[in-house]
Design brief:
Blueprint: H1 3-16, H2 21-36, H3 40-74, H4 76-88, H5 94-117, H6 125-134
Helix pairs in contact: 1-2, 2-3, 3-6
């Protein structure tokens, strides 16, 4: 069997057993290296080199999430939502409420599609856009 597949399954099982993710990664990497026939020092070297590459990506996402939270806490999103609501000037009828809800859902759908392709904000748009709409 494939050593990588076995290591991933072991990691998933350990995580489902509520073991720390980093410890699960380490244990599954050691077992995967052993199954693949790698020497212990080569397994450790490969693990540490690749975990450093992943740390750079994780740090980027953490900074992006922090930036999104700062924008959300600044109040600018609440201001923009108020402006949009005032600009719609919808009447208080059932049909207009349905139209506004459909408009919001379609806008969120388009924003989520663009966040993956056009605007490089990925997951950060969720804490920026959704909480002001819920409040």
């Amino acid at each position: 069997m494939n050593a990588v597949l076995i290591a991933v399954v072991i990691m998933i099982v350990l995580c489902l057993c509520r073991l720390n993710v980093v410890i699960s990664l380490f244990i599954s990497a050691l077992i995967g290296g052993w199954i693949a026939g790698l020497p212990f020092d080569k397994t450790i070297t490969t693990f540490t080199e690749n975990i450093m590459d992943g740390a750079e990506v994780a740090l980027s996402y953490a900074l992006l999430g922090g930036f999104a939270a700062l924008i959300s806490y600044s109040g600018i999103t609440d201001y923009l939502v108020r402006k949009v609501i005032l600009s719609i000037r919808a009447e208080e009828t059932k049909v207009s409420r349905i139209k506004v809800k459909v408009l919001i859902i379609v806008s969120l759908l388009l924003l989520s599609i663009m966040s993956q392709n056009v605007i490089p904000v990925h997951i950060a748009f969720i804490p920026i856009v959704i909480p002001p709409l819920l409040s």
